[in-house]
Design brief:
The protein is α+β, with helices and mostly antiparallel strands. The protein has one domain. Strands 1, 2, 3, 4, 5, 6, 7, 8, 9 and 10 form a ten-stranded mixed β-sheet that branches. The protein is elongated. The model has no long low-confidence stretch (mean pLDDT 89).
Length: 227
């Protein structure tokens, strides 16, 4: 026999078959980039880092290569960098191995609200759940698929990460009947620097469209990694 709650849910489904939800992911994350480097480039900037600091007047707590990538177009003074390792363009252009973005899997908080219509910003919404993403996945048996970045294979690499904090994913979902939280799935990528970023969100087979985020930049890291 159906419980009182199950009977009420059935009545609600009949009265309101279409349900409208907003799903957001908030936390730390950012834009991450990996590109090819070489032993020559690594040795010039990293093996000889003290020499480069003196040459380019860079303090001990700062990376000469980081300064070069940020300032080379505006400040100059890098005429002695060997032509074979001169990098043209902005820091985000060196992305021939991998380029991703998203909220950190470990820091993300998921919030789901139900609204009266799909006009999410103009109607009152009721909170369904708000939890750290890892707890949500455990509690509701949701799926998370974590794959490796192409950069995991190693080698001499260029690495940059624009660290951000805030709203990374803002999705909409309309269902027939009440949302089944176990049908949510999160596609993620693990990177060599230790970060795992959430790249895509699904409900069953449907990928949820991201209306865009609202984040603030916290730091920018640009480095060279050895094989």
């Amino acid at each position: 026999m159906a419980t009182a709650q199950e009977k009420q849910e059935l009545v609600d489904d009949i009265k309101k078959p279409h349900r409208h939800y907003r799903i957001t992911l908030v936390g730390y994350g950012g834009e991450i980039i990996y590109g090819n480097s070489s032993k020559e480039e690594y040795d010039y900037w990293e093996t000889n880092i003290d020499k480069r600091r003196k040459e380019f007047n860079v303090p001990e707590d700062e990376s000469p290569f980081n300064r070069y990538m940020i300032d080379k177009e505006d400040v100059g003074g890098y005429e002695n960098v060997p032509k074979s390792i001169v990098r043209i363009g902005e820091w985000w252009d060196s992305n021939d191995i991998d380029h991703g973005s998203g909220v950190s899997y470990d820091s993300a908080v998921i919030a789901i609200v139900e609204c009266e219509t799909d006009e999410i910003f103009s109607v009152e919404c009721d909170s369904i759940v708000e939890l750290p993403l890892t707890e949500f996945i455990d509690q509701y048996d949701a799926e998370s698929v974590i794959g490796d970045s192409e950069a995991i294979n190693g080698g001499y690499m260029y690495y940059a990460m624009d660290v951000q904090k805030g709203l990374f994913f803002d999705g909409r979902l309309t269902t027939i009947g009440k949302i089944d939280l176990s049908k949510l799935a999160f596609e993620c990528t693990e990177y060599p620097n230790g970060d795992t970023l959430v790249n895509h969100v699904f409900y069953g087979e449907e990928e949820l469209y991201d209306d865009g985020g609202d984040t603030n930049e916290k730091a920018l890291y640009i480095e060279l990694a050895a094989a």
